[in-house]
Design a protein that fits this description.
alpha/beta, 2 domains, five-stranded parallel β-sheet, 47% helix, disordered N terminus
Length: 234
Amino acid sequence: MASILAGLLHQPLLSAVTRCYRSSDAIDESSITHLYLLDGDRLLETAIAMASDGKPILIPQEATLRSVQCGAAPSPDEVKPQLLLELGAAPGQTELVPGAAWDDYQRIEYLGQWMDQNPDAVVCMLAEALASGRLRRIVDRKFTDQAASRLKIKPLDPIDHSADRWWRSTTGCKEFYGQSIAWLYDWISPNGTPRPDDMSPQEYEDAFRQRLRSLGVRLSDAPPQPELSPQGAS
């Protein structure tokens, strides 16, 4: 009997949990003045379809990674506008939101600054479905009520599985658990997590050790032991 009840409750419980992970914003596309591209499957195609009437498409400026600085990888600030042009966007339809963001916290923060400078803008953010609920909570925490009401989040469902039935596929389970870890990071560090690429290795180690201590982890202050040379090395 217990197994039968567990089976009957399995899907409703998971569906209820999933609703917390998705944004439920009511979106009136006729009132949207700008689109903001974050992430998700069919991101560019959805943006082109929604901006067919000429709506400006906002793209977050990303922090310049070392791989971009040394020329090993292209800048996403240049790649997305070019891809949008190839898909049918009009020249000049894309706009870069300044800020050189490292993570979602900074992207949302810089978008808020842009919206403060454009008080008449009503923005629709396109984001991954299971990440959209977490992003909505970050927006509500960082924005004023008036600014938050002008930002709508549209969840983009994945191509290869159903976000609402993620437990039915391996890819969906990985996505759900990844977003669960992101929620945990939000709770541990509500202002974002330090990134190794925007500070020296020693600064990153110091910040990481300080965070562990704040969580009650006991760390030794002894200096690290020197690396040993392999036996027989000349």
